[in-house]
TrEMBL record:
<comment type="similarity">
    <text>Belongs to the bacterial ribosomal protein bS21 family.</text>
</comment>
<dbReference type="InterPro" id="IPR001911">
    <property type="entry name" value="Ribosomal_bS21"/>
</dbReference>
<dbReference type="Pfam" id="PF01165">
    <property type="entry name" value="Ribosomal_S21"/>
</dbReference>
<dbReference type="InterPro" id="IPR038380">
    <property type="entry name" value="Ribosomal_bS21_sf"/>
</dbReference>
<dbReference type="GO" id="GO:0003735">
    <property type="term" value="F:structural constituent of ribosome"/>
</dbReference>
<dbReference type="GO" id="GO:0006412">
    <property type="term" value="P:translation"/>
</dbReference>
<protein>
    <recommendedName>
        <fullName>Small ribosomal subunit protein bS21</fullName>
    </recommendedName>
</protein>
<dbReference type="GO" id="GO:1990904">
    <property type="term" value="C:ribonucleoprotein complex"/>
</dbReference>
<keyword id="KW-0689">Ribosomal protein</keyword>
<keyword id="KW-0687">Ribonucleoprotein</keyword>
<dbReference type="GO" id="GO:0005840">
    <property type="term" value="C:ribosome"/>
</dbReference>
Length: 65
């Protein structure tokens, strides 16, 4: 649960803006989207490995964007 400390004289728009920033930083929306579909742990680790290989190839200069 997100709690926003707002002063009595603070504008509601500012408090809403603070809430939106906190919500975005907490990455709850990303977690919800991730939980919509189950992916096996072997598939997750494979995609992580492929991403790491791709990043390494870009860093070494084998692949140009």
């Amino acid at each position: 649960m997100l709690i926003i400390d707002s002063k009595d004289c603070e504008n509601i728009d500012k408090a809403l803006k603070k809430y939106k920033k906190k919500f975005e930083k907490s990455k709850t929306l990303l977690q919800l989207r991730e939980r919509q579909h189950f992916t096996k742990s072997s598939v997750k680790s494979r995609t992580q490995r492929l991403k790491a290989i791709y990043r390494q190839q870009i860093a070494s200069g084998k692949i140009e964007l």
